[in-house]
User: What shape does this take?
Amino acid sequence: MTMDEVDRLVASWQQERPDLDVTPLQVLSRVSRLARHLDRARRASFAEHDLESWEFDVLTALRRAGTPYELSPGALLRATLVTSGTMTNRIDRLEQAGLVRRRPDPEDRRGVLVSLTDDGRGRVDAAFADLLRRERELLAGLGADEQKVLADLLRTLLTPFDT
Assistant: This one.
């Protein structure tokens, strides 16, 4: 088996601090390094489609909502985990770019709905397809069964944080 940077890091810590159990580094340092590679892939994919990460987050929330691809600003807040002021600013900027539009909520005279424009839908669909291609490349060293095992193990680790 080929040694990677994490193996070298762990060996160094075991040499310098044999009193500590550095086993968590075997998993979590690799997860951290993989996250950096994924972040680079995401940024490259979004940039190729003239989108920022935050724009992609809002546009994908709308796209996942299904036809007619619209949500209230409150639903967008819950989907993207940002503050109300931040979301208002993001919607304003996306609307100025022609990627979303606002319309009055027919069920709540005080509310508005935010929906994808055709340009917004086309841009987010293309960026998402490109992102998936890049993510498949990151996982190319694993077979389908190994990917499923890894996904299941990561779910087990993440579930306590998502509740």
